[in-house]
C-alpha cells in the first residue's frame, strides 16, 4: 500500500523522536511491501520562528492531504514570552480543530520489565492494559465564554459544561468499537448523580449499547473511577469519558506505567486523517543531546498503522518489537535504573529495528 504521512517534528526532542520513528516505519514498509511518503511541515515554536505563526496554512493543507499525521512535540522556554502572545501550543490545538479530531485515545500498557519504576505495587500494575478514550471537542473547554460578573456583591466566574447528544453519541460509539477490537468491556465514566450533562451522557450510552450486544458495559462515577485506577487498574479494558474527566484520568493513568517517555496517543475524527503523537512534551532539558526515549513516538506510529491504515499485523510487529526491546533490558536514560547502561535515541532505535 502507498500512504502519505505528514511529519510535524515540532520542537525540542520532537525532532529526534520523529526521526527515529520514520526509520522504524521505513523498516515496516520494507518488510511488508508498503511505501510511505513523508511530507514535512512546521508547527509550534519552529513555525513561529519561521512564519510568526504556530500553524501556517501550508501545514494545515499538508495534514489534510495525507493519510496520517505524526507529531513530535511543541513548545519550550524559548517561546514563553513572545511579544505578541503567540504560543507554540496554539499550533497543536489548532491542528486538532482543523482536522476535526473528536476522540483522544491513550493506551496504558504496563511492561512487566519496567513496572519497578512505578510508584505502585508491582502486582497491581504488571501487565496493565487499558485504553482511555477522551472526548475532545465539547464540555467545559468550549463553553460560551462568559463575562466575569457580580454575585451577591462579589466577583464570580462561570463555565458551562454542554454536550449535544450527537457529540456524545459519536464518542461513545468509538468506545464500543474500540472495546470490540479489544477485550469487549467498556466503562463509561460520568458524574450522573450531580450533572445533567452526565445524565444525558448515560442515557445516550444506554441507547448506543443496543447496537453492541457483545460488549459488556458498566457506568462508573468519575470519583470512583479515579480511585479504582489506582486500586485495581487491571479491571479496565476501555474507558470512555467527556473532555475534562478524560484529561484528568488519562494523566493519572499515565503514571501507572511509571514512565512518560513510553506513552503513545492518537486523536481521531470521523473522516480526516488521525494525528499521532507521544504523550510527553518537548523536554527542553535534554533536547539535542540524543538522550530522548523514542519508544512513545514509535508506539504512536504503531497506532497510526492500526487505526488509520488498517495495518493490524504491521502494528502488532512494532508493538512486539518495543516489548522485546524492553524485556531484553535495553534502556534510555529516563527508564534506566541506577547502574544500568544507557542507550542513545539512535541506539535504542537500532534495537527496535533488530527486534523487527
Ligand atoms: P509539556 O508542557 O509539553 O507537556 P512538560 O514540561 O510537562 O511538557 P515534558 O517535556 O514531557 O514535560 O518533560 C518532562 C520530563 O520528562 C523532562 O525532564 C523530560 O526530560 C522528561 N522526558 C519527557 N519525554 C521524554 C522522553 N521521550 N525521553 C526521555 N525523557 C523524557
Ligand atoms: Mg506536561
List key phrases describing it.
single chain, 356 residues, alpha/beta, Isopropylmalate Dehydrogenase, 2 domains, two-stranded antiparallel sheet, 12 helices, binds adenosine-5'-triphosphate, binds magnesium ion
In a few lines, what is going on in this structure?
By secondary structure, the chain is of the alpha/beta class.
Structure, explained:
The radius of gyration is 21 Å and the shape is globular. The protein is built from twelve helices and twelve strands. It has 356 residues and is an alpha/beta fold. The chain has a ten-stranded mixed beta sheet, with helices on both faces. It folds into two domains: 1-105 and 262-356, Isopropylmalate Dehydrogenase; 129-255, Isopropylmalate Dehydrogenase. Residues 13, 17, 75, 260-261, 280-283, 285-286, 292-293, 296, 332, 334 line the site of adenosine-5'-triphosphate (ATP).
Structural class designation: alpha/beta
| CATH topology grouping of the largest domain | Isopropylmalate Dehydrogenase
Ligand inventory reads: adenosine-5'-triphosphate, magnesium ion
* Total of domains: 2
Amino acid at each position: 500500500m502507498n500512504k502519505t504521512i505528514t511529519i510535524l517534528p515540532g520542537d525540542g526532542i520532537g525532532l529526534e523522536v520523529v526521526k527515529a520513528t520514520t526509520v522504524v516505519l521505513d523498516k515496516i514498509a520494507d518488510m511488508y511491501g508498503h511505501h510511505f511518503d513523508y511530507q514535512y511541515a512546521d508547527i509550534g515554536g519552529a513555525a513561529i520562528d519561521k512564519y510568526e505563526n504556530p500553524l501556517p496554512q501550508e501545514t494545515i493543507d499538508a495534514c489534510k492531504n495525507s493519510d496520517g499525521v505524526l507529531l513530535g512535540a511543541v513548545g519550550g522556554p524559548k517561546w514563553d514570552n513572545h511579544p505578541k502572545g503567540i504560543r507554540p501550543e496554539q499550533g497543536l490545538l489548532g491542528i486538532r480543530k482543523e482536522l476535526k479530531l473528536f476522540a483522544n485515545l491513550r493506551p496504558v500498557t504496563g511492561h512487566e520489565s519496567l513496572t519497578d519504576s512505578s510508584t505502585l505495587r508491582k502486582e497491581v500494575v504488571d501487565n496493565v492494559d487499558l485504553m482511555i478514550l477522551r472526548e475532545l471537542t465539547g464540555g467545559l473547554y468550549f463553553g460560551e465564554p462568559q463575562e466575569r460578573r457580580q454575585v451577591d456583591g462579589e466577583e464570580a466566574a462561570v463555565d458551562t459544561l454542554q454536550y449535544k447528544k450527537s457529540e456524545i453519541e459519536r464518542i461513545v460509539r468509538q468506545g464500543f468499537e474500540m472495546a470490540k477490537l479489544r477485550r469487549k468491556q467498556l466503562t463509561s465514566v460520568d458524574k450522573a448523580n450531580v450533572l445533567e450533562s452526565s445524565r444525558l451522557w448515560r442515557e445516550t450510552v444506554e441507547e448506543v449499547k443496543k447496537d453492541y450486544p457483545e460488549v459488556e458495559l458498566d457506568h462508573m462515577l468519575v470519583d470512583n473511577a479515579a480511585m479504582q485506577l489506582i486500586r485495581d487498574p487491571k479491571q479496565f479494558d476501555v474507558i470512555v469519558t467527556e473532555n475534562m474527566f478524560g484529561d484528568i484520568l488519562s494523566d493519572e493513568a499515565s503514571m501507572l506505567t511509571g514512565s512518560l517517555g513510553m506513552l503513545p496517543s492518537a486523536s481521531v475524527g470521523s473522516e480526516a486523517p488521525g494525528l499521532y503523537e507521544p504523550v510527553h512534551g518537548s523536554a527542553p532539558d535534554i533536547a539535542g543531546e540524543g538522550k530522548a526515549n523514542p519508544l512513545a513516538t514509535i508506539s504512536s506510529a504503531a497506532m497510526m498503522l492500526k487505526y488509520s491504515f488498517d495495518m493490524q499485523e504491521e502494528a502488532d510487529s512494532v508493538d512486539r518489537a518495543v516489548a522485546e526491546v524492553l524485556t531484553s533490558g535495553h534502556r534510555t536514560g529516563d527508564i534506566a535504573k541506577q547502574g544500568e547502561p544507557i542507550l542513545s535515541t539512535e541506539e535504542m532505535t537500532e534495537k527496535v529495528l533488530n527486534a523487527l
